[in-house]
Amino acid sequence: MGSGKAERTAFPPFGNDPREDTEAVMKFYKLRAGFPSHVLKEANRAGARAAEPGKRLDLRKRFIFTCDPASARDFDDALSLESAGRGRVTLGVHIADVSHFVEPGGALDTEAYKRSFSVYFPDRVLPMLPETLSNGVCSLVPGEDRLAFSVFITFDKTGKPVARSFAKSIIRSKARFTYEQVMRVISGGARKGADAVDAKARKTILAINELAQTLRARRFADGALDIAVPETEVELDSEGMMTGLVTRPYDESHQMVEECMVAANEAVAAELTEHGIHVIARLHEPPDDEKIEMLRAELGAFGVNVGNIANRKAMARFLESIKGHPLYSTISVMVLRSMKRAVYDSTRMGHYGLAKRFYAHFTSPIRRYPDLTLHRQLADYLDGRAYRVPAQRLAKWAQHATEMEERAADAERAVAEMKKYRFLEESAASRQTIDYNAVIAKCAPYGCFVEIPELGVSGLVHISNISHRYVKFNEHDHTLSVPGGGRWRIGDSMKVRVLRVDRDERHIDFIPVR
Known about the structure:
Layout lengths: L20 H8 L8 H10 L10 E2 L6 E4 L8 E9 L2 E9 L10 H9 L3 E2 L4 E2 L4 H7 L7 E11 L5 E12 L2 E4 H8 L12 H23 L9 E6 L5 E7 L3 H23 L6 E3 L5 H13 L10 H10 L6 H11 L4 E3 L23 H14 L8 H39 L6 E9 L2 E6 L4 E6 H4 L5 E3 L4 E3 L5 E3 L3 E10 L4 E6 L2
Parallel strand pairs: 1-8, 2-9
Antiparallel strand pairs: 3-4, 4-7, 5-6, 7-8, 10-11, 12-13, 14-15, 14-20, 15-16, 17-18, 18-19, 20-21
Helix pairs in contact: 1-12, 6-7, 8-10
């Protein structure tokens, strides 16, 4: 959210009933919950195609498992690992074959294209595909035969990819693990009790994690940016009011899955591109020089000497150098804001943040339409045909995907904001004395804007609440000071309490806690 009044000019309206917030946001962003009847009928018919798998590599005897959040309902990716001799290993990334069930140009495909993404709210999910597919025949549930695309990448002992291959496959997941279970294995636990993981599974998990950490280290050595900003989930009560925020950990279990998905995305993009097939790339361009200079100035106001961050490796070294800094989270957010937004593009390729020359989305076809498009292209490539979408149409698809992704992200953010504003408004009205640790993000003649990392909100501390004495704004160093008294500057910590909330204007006033 922006400082003071929010940066966006229009907001979804608040109603009287917090249980209707999501509906208000859906209406504002023109998002639909249900599917038309003809789409549902086609989805029900499409499920029968599971009995017609066609020619596929049979991997049902291989140890393949999924790793997802405990609350996950659909599973679109699974992992395996095999020894390839001479210290080499072959990673298998197995992705649900949605393209087998969704025919190009059909009702399902048309609806999936319109939506382009699944949208995740605190109280519901708007899936891209009907649950008959997303939670049914496409989901890689354990113990069931499922159709997949399998990506095999062989790595040497240094984590360098030395071979890759692809296949339509049929798999049977042997286990469904949660991130928490996998993390316990990595930490040396999960050996006894109801949550125990057998020896074979532990060995495979530990080997994949070792490979993932090697791949991660290689990426950072190549200049990938390590920006770890915690993700939070809003928890609600039965009345639709926020009861708290849960921070998602970003531990080795999450890193393990992420590195495997990045490797698969890169391998498919490289394979098709090198064979002259244009794809919808996941493009992340370097930041503009102007943005870098603005970032340098902002960080300088924090007293942080950034040095030369004009190239990616220098930026990566800087991010590494500030780990452990008390304002690390705030600085990371500032760095993120200086970056260009990742988009979908049909003519350019490259991912600045991941330090990848070839990169496209392949691993989530249940919830992202660009992935489904890439699956179709890979399928035709493997069959010796070329799914060559006309350049103009591919460009249109990429632009539409970018727009729909932004709409989904805005909608998700809007619901979370509404819940937070209601929570803080109720807190202020009931005079609850909840104190928050804030960081000063900006100083102005009329006060200082603070950010509350704990809540992910920002607001204003007016000068009248900073001191009863004259408060001077110093333009040269953007600080506030009281002659002979205190001084406030960007990056300073401040304990604050909510004074008032204007939820319609998305504005919060805080007072410092003495």
